[in-house]
Amino acid sequence: MIIRPKIRGFICTTAHPEGCAKSVAEQIQYVKACGRFDGPRNVLVIGASTGYGLASRIAATYGCHAKTIGVFFEKEADEKRTASPGWYNTAAFEKQAHLDGFYAKSINGDAYSQSIKDAVMDLIRRDLQQVDLVIYSLASPRRVHPVTGQIYSSALKPIGQPFVGKTVDAFRGEVKDVTIEPANEEEIANTIAVMGGEDWEMWIDQLASENLLAPNVKTVAYSYIGPVLTHAVYKNGTIGKAKEHLKATADKLQGKLAALHGEAIVSVDKAVVTQASAAIPVVPLYMSILFKLMKEKGTHEGCIEQMDRLFREHLYAPHPPARDKDGFIRVDDLEMEQDIQRKIEEIWPQVTTENVKSLTDLDGYCDEFYRLFGFNIDGVNYDAEVDPVVKIPSI
Ligand code: NAD
After folding, report:
1. pLDDT band with cut points at 50, 70 and 90 for residue 281
2. Helix/strand/coil (H, E, C) string of 52-118?
3. Which helix (H) or strand (E) holds 202?
4. Considering 52, 112, 234, 370, which one is annotated as catalytic?
5. Residue 375 and residue 80: Cα distance in Å, rounded?
């Protein structure tokens, strides 16, 4: 099969196995070049196949030589369709990790379900006995509640009043005004049910009750705050409410883990292009300006740079920087630097369809989007036939 990108709205329905493999190899190379450091030994990553979760898995494996179990929800290829990028990423990651002598096993299925939790518990008990780091990096539009069977769908909406502002149709290069009507109470509650902390707590409770958490265990979930410009749709919107719930859950888990001298932490990460963030209105235009300025300043980072820094300079640093006043780890520090944010505020009102390519790094944004699916990767021949069926060794 010759595999080309097929863009539908803000998703791409195809993925390239060799491109994904190369992008994983680049991330591995990045961490190896930064050198080894003391960190976790046995790591569970929930949401391990793309974005921040995949980068966390790579940082743990190649930075600390940790054993990892990864959980995700991805599609295998069939006669008509390629696999999803997370499938190809994991196949490539596991193959390389095994060649390099590292334990890496994966479980594909719905992490919100009881059956997948039970399967993961069995695997930990059998192979690792206990884990000393649990990364919670799910991003999902829906959740089936494992006890009630109720289906929740998340919404990306403002709260209280409509949002009126600018957004970009990234692939058409069109800057346009959008109005997003505010969420109702049910949509807010549903978004909290999907992206809040209830499922994270269920994972930690089950791991603890089955004695699968090691002393001094850490568990980390990821959040985003961003500048005032995006607050209506992010921080003060439905997703922000879910993130508040995630933080409240961390504070609750901190108490539950006290006997193990454990820690539950929320790390606030930088805005990066992932399948999850591409779906949020306004954010792609903000990111296009942000990337231009951070690249000019030499501070631009993707998932792997962020996660390497999180592990090396915060979670496992002998003298980590202080958390912020709310107790968050902040690896969004370079994004939030005053000079960067001041310039974004200046550029934002000026951006139009005519000047979007010169005032912002829209091309860089689109390029990173293609790369998520294994396209636009140097050294891959996209005109060549490639077998879309790729096995993940442990599945
Ligand atoms: P992503 O879409 O790249 O990754 C999501 C992961 O969750 C994938 O591994 C996917 O397979 C898995 N997943 C989704 N539904 C699942 C299910 N039901 N069962 C099992 N696995 C499932 O997303 P991302 O952007 O890396 O987001 C991860 C976390 O980081 C989220 O909490 C997000 O809010 C946060 N974050 C993202 C950004 C950003 O700019 N992308 C910034 C800061 C924080």
Report:
1. confident
2. HHHHHHHHHHHHHCCEEEEEECCCCCCCCCCCCHHHHHHHHHHHHHHHCCCCEEEEECCCCCHHHHH
3. helix 198-209
4. 234
5. 19
Helix, strand, coil percentages, rounded to 5, for the chain: 45, 15, 40
Going along the chain from its start, the domains and CATH numbers come out as 7-372 (3.40.50.720)
Tell me the C-alpha distance between 83 and 231, whole Å: 35
The pLDDT tens digits for 164-187 are: 999 999 999 999 999 999 999 999
3-state secondary structure of 176: strand
C-alpha 349 – ligand 1 centre gap (Å): 30
Ligand 1 touching residue 63 (CB < 6 A): no
**For ligand 1, is residue 73 a contact (CB within 6 Å)?**
yes
- By most ligand atoms within 8 Å of CB, the mutation choice from 57, 113, 140, 290 for ligand 1 is 140
Closest of 2, 8, 14, 9 to residue 372, by C-alpha: 14
Active site residue 234: yes
Q: Closest by alpha carbon to 39, among 68, 66, 67?
A: 66
pLDDT at 275: 83
